[in-house]
Write a structure and sequence with these properties.
Elements (H helix, E strand, L loop, with lengths): L7 H16 L8 E5 L11 E7 L17 E7 L2 E7 L10 H14 L3 E10 L9 E9 L27 H14 L3 E8 L8 H10 L3 E3 L3 H9 L3 E11 L10 H25 L2
Parallel strand pairs: 1-4, 1-5, 5-9, 6-7, 7-8
Antiparallel strand pairs: 2-3, 3-4, 5-8, 6-9
Helix pairs in contact: 1-2, 2-5, 3-6
The structure holds hypoxanthine.
């Protein structure tokens, strides 16, 4: 695919225009950017919202096309921390470029957010994982076939060749695990892989992904995490398992099943996110 990239100057102009528009509405310096995955928008209702800004009011923000995503930034308090939450995220399969997908992460960092807290709905490849289980992401395998760092590098944002030895911040992973334990919420720790979608995968692809070392599979998260790591943000990723991707017992999956399983997991996800935010320094 031929790609057209913004120059560093064009990117900075777009980002600064988005930041300026947001700054006309709020002076909040977020402690974290929270990205809510498919079927996980309920968590946003727990935020003591100060202001909500629809994506269409922010210059250069892409617009959500998937029905299950609402499409706004919510600024407010969650777990005693200042949060900017993305209700509705952008997927590669919708046709957005990687640069568009991570634009909100770039904007959040420019607003001062040092932390990216990202959630997603995913399929479970590990036979121990059941629908509505939670998994703390401790590593990922990028099989999207693209990434947001290809193109000109803005050296003021981050290095040309970012290190990926610990994309998910170990201390936050430990804190989230401790929080889950103290709340009595069972969580797995595992490896997330992302494919472009939008189709789910074949039995043979699930077998292959499992062989590679992945515990869950989805279609998101990795671009935003790469951009976060590039900008030296701390990252915490939480996956909600919505269906079982076991080749021998695979059953057809509908979007409604995925959303129902995500909904069922939401109370635990909400408690875990709020508890972890509250426990952060
Ligand atoms: N693949 C399989 N099952 C899923 C996915 C996926 O990408 N996302 C949610 N359930």
């Amino acid at each position: 695919m031929t790609q057209v990239f913004d120059t560093v100057q064009e990117f900075r102009k777009k980002r600064d225009e988005a930041v300026a528009t947001i700054r006309q509405k709020t002076s909040m310096i977020p402690d974290a950017l929270l990205i809510l995955g498919t079927g996980l928008g309920q968590l946003a209702t727990e935020i003591e919202a100060e202001i909500e800004i629809p994506y269409q009011e922010i210059p250069h923000f892409p617009l959500s096309t998937v029905e299950s995503h609402a499409g706004k930034l919510i600024f407010g308090k969650l777990g005693g921390k200042n949060i900017v939450a993305m209700q509705g995220r952008f997927h590669y399969y919708e046709g957005y470029t990687m640069q568009q997908i991570v634009f909100p992460v770039r904007v959040a960092k420019a607003l001062g957010a040092p932390l990216l807290l990202v959630s997603n709905a995913c399929g479970g490849l590990n036979p121990d994982y059941k629908p509505s289980d939670l998994m703390l992401i401790h590593d990922h395998i990028n099989l999207l076939g693209d990434n947001p760092l290809i193109g000109p590098n803005d050296d003021h944002l981050g290095p040309r060749f970012p290190d990926m030895s610990e994309p998910y911040t170990r201390s936050l992973l430990d804190l989230a695990q401790k929080t889950a334990d103290s709340l009595g919420i069972h969580v797995h720790q595992g490896v997330y892989t992302a494919l472009s979608g939008p189709m789910l995968e074949t039995r043979s692809e699930y077998r292959y992904l499992r062989l590679l070392g992945a515990d869950v599979v989805g279609m998101s998260t990795i671009p935003e995490v790469i951009a976060g790591v590039h900008m030296n943000m701390k990252v915490l990723g939480i996956s909600v398992i919505t269906d079982e991707c076991i080749p021998e017992t695979l059953k057809p999956v509908q979007l409604e099943d995925v959303i129902a399983a995500a909904k069922k997991a939401e109370p635990n996800l909400t408690r875990l996110v709020i508890g972890t935010l509250a426990a952060m320094e």
